[in-house]
Amino acid sequence: MKTRISFQRCWYFSLLFIAVLSCQKDKFKPELSAENELVSFVFAADKHPNVLNEIETEIIGDTIFARTLVGTNVQALTPDFEHKGVKITVNNVEQVSGKDKQDFSKLVKYTVAAENGDGKTYIVKFVDTGLPAIYLSTDGKPIESKEDYITGSIKITSGFEGKVVYEGVTEVKGRGNSTWWMPKKPYRIKLDKKVALLGMPADKSWALLANYGDQSLLRNEIAFEVSRRLDMGYTPRQQYVELFLNGEFMGNYTLTEHIKEGIDRVAIDEKNGGFILEGDGYAYSEPVHFITYQNMPITVKFPDEDDITPAQLEYITKYVGTFENSLFKIGDQANSNYQDYFDLPSFVNYYLANEICGNSDLLWSMRMYKKSSLDPKIYVGPVWDFDLGFNNDKRLGDSQEVMMMDKAHEPRAWMNKLMVDPSFKKLVRSRWKEVKSKLESMPEYIDQRAKKISYSQKYNFKRWDVLGMNINQSWFVAATHQEYVGFVRDFLTKRITWLDGVINGPQFD
User: Fold this and answer.
1) Is 419 helix (H, G, I), strand (E, B) or coil?
2) In this predicted structure, what is the pLDDT of residue 1?
3) For residue 315, what are the contacts with CB-CB under 8 A and spacing of at least 6?
4) Per-residue DSSP letters for 354-390?
5) Is the pLDDT of residue 371 over 70?
6) Bridge partners of residue 56, in order along the sequence
7) What are the tens digits of pLDDT across the range 148-193?
């Protein structure tokens, strides 16, 4: 009896021991990993000779956004990737980083498998830089002249898929003065009919500004916004675009309203004595110009050179002369009535916009207009051409705290006379107090615009390798686009504070 009990006990404890060993074995058995994350996914430039730059990607949730230029051939691209998991597949076929190509003109799904068998799928979606694209074609004919148009076609698309938002016939020629001789050319385009492009009012005449001498690509855009906040009568509208000329990528441009007469531009009565002028340092090379008694060179912008009559030119010349004669009688209260011919508030707005932006071309290129024979005054504006603004003119050195009133380039005759007029000083101070609060958020505006072109600028400077170079009259040098943006932002922030002290100081008493 005792032997039998002993046997049963041994059998029981043997089973118990085996069970304990089994539990211990399961306890130390490693669990299969559930990691199935895609860590990085890029398209290296050295693997794709036909791709202008490395295609950057951003992984958001289960989508891989690949950003590149519109028109990039994505039918046979080889990605480099890193992942956490045992393998990565496309349509159940295992993929090798840097080796296996895919056709990304369609949505491609990459699945990362974990050790425990779980899978996570990512979809690759190609997108553009976020800017519209303009395709300008002249059938291969070079654009070599600022005077003669050549016939061409224009197509504007939106999105990587290339949705056409406008397509038509155009004429194109060069434009600009010093900028025309730079490698990245600006252009003037004239459509065959009035069209509202990219949300801007309909017209035939447009400009494509290259901004080659401005490595921030923002100076004109910022100046136009300052003008708008000063409520100037008209400020040119513009939109950032990618330009392709005869199939070649030309970089980041701005499609900008050409300054001309029109309801939505410079509103003059062209049939009733209205005209548009420019105080112009380049006037001597323009077809229709004159020089005042005080040696102010003036270009007639409208009526057009092909339409203006000798009688119209004589009338404009004499009218400007009448204003100038009156201006130079400042101090002679009995005879100085220059404000009967000249709208001082519009000049003060124009002056402040240029002073805020530190534009050394304040007077070198100053646009003016007379509305009609029913209004005797010459108005000043709109603002234009700020490539040398925001401390970008080495001839002035560091102009952070330099008044353009004192140091802007010739011709200065009218400015020098206005500087001694108490009415001008008083109006500058009062207008500054009215608008200063509108300028305080300008740094945030700069950040917002810089973000808008953050992808486009990379391709622009791949096409035009000018970061770190002195261009035209520039003196500040930086290695990255963001540093140039920061330089402009810092200049404007400090400039507004400094100007507040100057305008409220003895110089404007």
Assistant:
1) coil
2) 43
3) 273
4) HHHTT-TTTTTEEEEEEEETTEEEEEE------TTTT
5) yes
6) 67
7) 999 999 999 999 989 999 999 999 999 999 999 999 999 999 999 9
Name the packing angle between helices 442-452 and 219-229 (round to 10°): 140
Angle at CA 94, nearest 5°, toward 93 and 100?
95
Q: Which two tokens stand for residue 272?
A: 């009733």
Q: 10 pLDDT exceeds 90? A: no
pLDDT at position 143 over 80:
yes
- Average pLDDT of the chain? 93
Is the previous residue joined to 142 through a cis bond, with omega within 30 degrees of 0?
Answer: no
Residues 354, 391: contact at Cβ < 8 Å? no
Q: What is the pTM of this model?
A: 0.90
**Long-range contact pairs involving 167-171 (C-beta distance under 8 Å, separation at least 24):** 168/192, 168/193, 168/195, 170/136
12-46 per-residue burial string, b: 16 or more CB within 10 A, e: under 16: eeeeeeeeeeeeeeeeeeeeeeeebebeebbbeee
What amino acid is encoded at 254 in this protein?
Answer: T
Cα–Cα distance measured from residue 201 to residue 161, given in angstroms and rounded to the nearest whole number: 26
Would you state the pLDDT for residue 3? 47
Q: Looking up tokens 């058995």, which residue turns up?
A: 29
221 — pLDDT class (breaks 50, 70, 90):
very high
> How remote is the C-alpha of 57 from its chain's centroid?
23
3-state secondary structure of 55: strand
Nearest Cα residue to 303 out of 261, 258, 343: 261
Quick check: bond before 303 cis, omega within 30? yes
For 123, the 3-state DSSP assignment is strand
Q: CA neighbours within 13 Å on the CB side: how many for 241?
A: 26
Does the pLDDT at position 2 exceed 50? Answer: no
pLDDT digits 0-9 by tens, 38-92: 999 999 888 888 776 778 899 999 999 999 999 888 999 999 999 999 999 999 9
Query: What is the predicted pLDDT for the residue at 336?
Result: 76
Sort residue 299 into left (φ over 0), alpha (ψ -120 to 50) or beta.
Answer: beta
In whole angstroms, how far apart are CA 22 and each of 16, 19, 190? 10, 5, 86
| Omega prior to 422 cis, within 30 of 0 | no
Burial 416-425 (b: 16+ CB within 10 A, else e): ebbeebeebb
